[in-house]
Amino acid sequence: MHLKVIGKVVNGVTESPHDWADVRSRIVIRPSYIDGLYRLSRFRHVWIIFGFHRQRDTVLRVHPRRDPRMPLFGVFATQSPTRPNKIGLTLVELLRIRRNVLTVKGLDAFDGSPVYDIKPSEDEIDF
Amino acid sequence: MHLKVIGKVVNGVTESPHDWADVRSRIVIRPSYIDGLYRLSRFRHVWIIFGFHRQRDTVLRVHPRRDPRMPLFGVFATQSPTRPNKIGLTLVELLRIRRNVLTVKGLDAFDGSPVYDIKPSEDEIDF
C-alpha cells in the first residue's frame, strides 16, 4: 500500500534530545484534509502515525534503546525504527488546534517527518 | 511511502460481527520476518497496524459507527476506515505465538487483511 502524506512535523529537532517527553511540535496538516480535523479538539490525547524518514536500514533483532547491555529482542517487540515499515506510533498530548495546525507534546519525531494518520485515544472515545 | 506486507490475517470473518472483542484471529507472518518476533511473547497486549483492504472511499466527515443519529466528526477524530490512508490500529490480546503464527483476540480486521507492523503495548514495556 502506498501511504499519502497528510501533514508534516515542524519542531526544529534534528538530533535526538535527552527526553522526547517535553518536546513540543507543530503538525501542519495539508489544507485538503482540514475537514478531517473537525471536533478532534475534544480529545486531550491522540495517536500520531508518522514516518521515520531518516531511517534506511531494517534490523530484525535489536538491543532496546540501542544499549548493547540490553538483551536482543525482535524488532516487533520494541519501538526501534529499524522495522520493515518505517512507521512510528506515538500517543501525544494535544495542546491546541488552530485551523490546520496541531500543537502536540511528546512526539518523538524529527523535524520534517511525514505524518500519515491521526487517531483518537481509545480511552477518551465516548461515542 | 510504500508499505510492505509483513503478514496476513486469517480468521474467516467476511462480514462485521456484532462485537469484534471476542473474535480470535491468526496472524501469519511471512517467514522472512520471523526474527522480528523474538521475545514478543513476553507481551500480553500488542498493537497491530493493518490495512482496511476492502475500503476504497475517503470521507473526511463521518457519523461515528455509521450511525446517522450521531453528530458528524472529522475522520481523524474517529476510527472510521474512510481515512486518507486505509490503516487500522488495534490493541489486541496476544494469546499465543507458534513459530510465525500469532493468535490474537479482539482484532477488528476481515479475513485476508494485510498486516504492516506489530508494536508492543507501551504499558508493558519494562526496558
Walk me through this protein's architecture.
The first copy, chain A, is mainly β and 127 residues long. Chain A has a single domain, classed as YaeB-like (Elongation Factor Tu (Ef-tu), domain 3, Beta Barrel), CATH 2.40.30.70. Chain A is 0% helix and 35% strand. Chain A has no helices and eight strands. In chain A, strands 1-2-7-6-3-8 form a six-stranded antiparallel barrel. Chain A starts with 6 loop residues before the first strand and ends in a 7-residue tail after the last strand. Chains A and B meet through β3, β5, β6 and β8 of A and β3, β5, β6 and β8 of B.
What are the key terms here?
six-stranded antiparallel β-barrel, mainly beta, Elongation Factor Tu (Ef-tu), domain 3, homodimer, two-stranded antiparallel ribbon, 35% strand, 127 residues, globular
Q: Specify the oligomeric state.
A: homodimer
Q: So, the CATH homologous superfamily of chain A?
A: YaeB-like
Task: Give me the Rg of chain A, rounded.
Answer: 15 Å
Q: Kindly report the spatial arrangement of strands forming the biggest sheet of chain A.
A: 1-2-7-6-3-8
Derived from helix and strand composition plus strand pairing, the structural class of chain A reads mainly beta
CATH fold topology of chain A: Elongation Factor Tu (Ef-tu), domain 3
Q: Beta-sheet strand percentage of chain A?
A: 35-45%
Looking at the overall shape, the CATH architecture of chain A is Beta Barrel
Give the SSE order of chain A as H and E letters: EEEEEEEE
Helix content of chain A: under 10%
**What average pLDDT do the residues of chain A reach?**
96
What separation lies between the terminal Cα atoms of chain A? Answer: 30 Å
Main β-sheet of chain A: number of strands, strand sense, barrel status? Answer: 6 strands, antiparallel, barrel
According to CATH, what is the class of chain A? Answer: Mainly Beta
